[in-house]
Recover the amino acids of this structure.
């Protein structure tokens, strides 16, 4: 298992170096950093001095090495738009995005898996067919349209929930959260449902398909023939073998939710990383864009490593294969 983890760490380092190269190309060759920092009244001599100070006259390989070193220390440079370190901006916005993403995935997993199991065990029932129809609707509607519909119904018409913002937050150990305040919880409901609806329907359909496939296997038929209770067969044997592909999807979707929460955060004006990235794109703020790319790459690598370890915990055959390898 240790060798398996070491191999995964080496692969992760290669992936992060590739992401760093893409971010460096974006930072170095998409526009001139000097033009973004200085004003139009700056003289040519001052511009040349600025280029020398930033190290832009050094060979590209040296600039890339310096860039990787800064990224390894989570030093993403200075924002052109906000005139403050990008790492500080990320530290302010990251709690909001992680809170939204985690709650969305908890909702998706907590509702999607039971719905998938129910629709597989009782696939001919009216409730299961209704769930299938609802899952098609949830997987087909665009995220921004779902958000707008929720705002129209629950904010404009009923006035039950706030239509934008994060509500009141409290800071605990440098981490700001809205989960401990009433307005924060209310503000979280619609964005989390909007962001998690697609993942919920995807997980439900995957669990249903995998569960139906597993229920047709010989060892499930043998378990029934031995007289084991349906509860033991369905949840102790069938569901456990169904969870291996589900873990893959949940891990990848968690990374996707964090990386691509831009639309949801824009619709609800949620003060997270996605909204910050969109503002950076609109203002050509390259340090924020490059830092965001690197940070998302690190999150994906961590999530994929966690998924690989969960594989071994769920399926002993994977643990044996990893140890033999």
């Amino acid at each position: 298992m240790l060798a398996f983890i070491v191999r995964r760490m080496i692969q992760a380092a290669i992936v992060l170096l590739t992401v760093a190269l893409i971010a460096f190309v974006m930072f170095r060759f998409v526009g001139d950093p000097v033009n973004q920092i200085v004003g139009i009244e700056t003289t040519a001599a001052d511009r040349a001095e600025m280029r020398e100070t930033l190290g832009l006259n050094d060979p590209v390989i040296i600039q890339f090495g310096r860039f990787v070193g800064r990224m390894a220390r989570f030093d993403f440079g200075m924002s052109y738009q906000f005139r403050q370190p990008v790492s500080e901006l990320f530290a302010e916005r990251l709690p909001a995005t992680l809170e939204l993403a985690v709650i969305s995935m908890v909702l998706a997993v907590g509702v999607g898996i039971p719905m998938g199991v129910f629709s597989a065990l009782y696939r001919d029932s009216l409730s299961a067919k209704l769930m299938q129809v609802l899952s098609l609707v949830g997987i087909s509607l665009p995220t921004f349209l779902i958000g707008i519909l929720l705002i129209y119904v629950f904010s404009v018409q009923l006035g039950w929930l706030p239509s934008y913002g994060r509500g009141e937050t409290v800071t605990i150990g440098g981490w700001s959260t809205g989960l401990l305040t009433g307005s924060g919880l209310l503000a979280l409901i619609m964005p989390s449902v909007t962001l998690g609806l697609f993942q919920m329907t995807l997980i439900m359909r995957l669990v249903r398909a995998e569960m139906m496939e597993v229920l047709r296997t010989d060892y499930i038929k043998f378990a029934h023939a031995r007289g084991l209770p349906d509860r033991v067969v369905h949840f102790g044997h069938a569901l456990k073998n169904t969870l291996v592909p589900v873990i893959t999807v949940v891990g990848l979707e968690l990374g996707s939710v964090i990386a691509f929460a831009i639309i949801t955060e824009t619709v609800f004006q949620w003060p997270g990383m996605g909204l910050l990235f969109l503002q950076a794109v609109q203002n050509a703020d390259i340090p924020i864009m490059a830092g965001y790319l690197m940070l998302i790459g690190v999150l994906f690598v961590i999530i994929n490593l966690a998924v690989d370890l969960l594989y071994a915990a769920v399926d002993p055959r994977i643990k044996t294969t990893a140890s033999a390898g």
Residues 1-73+285-325 form one domain.
